[in-house]
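[step 3/7] fold_predict: job queued, chain A
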Amino acid sequence: MFELTDEQRALKQLAAEVATERYAPHARSWDELRTPLPDEERRLLGSLGLLALTLPEEYGGGGRPLIDALIVLEELAKASPLAAWPVFEASTGPARVIHLFGSEEQKKRILPAVAAGESTIAVSISEPDAGSAATDAATSARVEGDEVVINGSKRWCSGAGHAEQYLVYVRFGPEPGAAGMGAVLVDKKTPGLAFGFQEHLMGHRGVGSADMFFSDVRVPVENVIIPKGGFRNLFTAFSIERLGNSTMSLAIGQTALDRTARYVQERKQFGKEIIEFQLVQAGLADMVIQVEAARLLIYRAAVSAGTGAPSALEASIAKCFSNEMAKKVSDLAMQLHGGYGYSHEYEIERLHRDSHGWALAGGTTTMQRTRIASEYLGRRFDQRA
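[step 4/7] structure written:
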């Protein structure tokens, strides 16, 4: 049993109040119009100290353990996944990579603006021929004097075109696999960087997703966050990001459960509330079991991590289960809502759409299973034929 401290309960209440009063009323229209989160809303989260809870205080963050950030992330995501996105990026995404692996100069230069909501960083890793096989990336980077020159293209970049900066994973040399890879921070306005059209995705609307094209993009060598050969260190950061991903799925499941619990006690058929029917009770019970199990797996990994990183095994288990839970629970919610679940009115269909995105992002559930087997057995499996 995980009991929240008084401080954590207060943090949870603050996040819930902001989410309910400020973001919930706009969630439907943001989704319909694919509207990016307004800059002033991101700055508000920064001013409230909710944006970068896991970053150290000396860089403008909250200096809190990972579990605190996940508590806030869930409350915001239950109201609007778009409002939760900057917290996801700052507390569990690319900003944490810079915190973990960047130089002191880089941390002082980059992170305070992120913590304040003045700047956002998106990650750019996938390519047309390098998705789950991220170490097959071909986008190249070469050092010329005091600059790094980047050429290539990226796909499925969440936040592309909206974020101010991008943590771009590149290949510094001819060495295959992880050996030649590193990461460079690139400003949105850098000459030679271009964006493709915004993808019309099934879910995650407003976050933005587009291709990125690099044609002799030059950035200062001081922007190299991960040097050549340092890619394997990122597995630590990936585990943190996977718990952020898991929590976004948890928020979907909890929201679907909450709305269904209300609906089945209001909707009447054959002269009584539909919750009186045993199959409806069983469906609701299955939703409760799935959501609570996901929360316990996430909390176990996060509490074990403290202010550091969770184990790869626990993070992958949490992500795999939570991703599939969100799909199952939102589908059950749709069934128990009947025709209303399939309509736009109750927003169950939006939850179901979004659930599929998290199961693809940050390593598919298929890849998580391979990771789980690998970590459990203490072996490494080569996926190449």
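[step 5/7] annotate
The longest helix spans residues 234-266.
The mean pLDDT is 93.
exit 0
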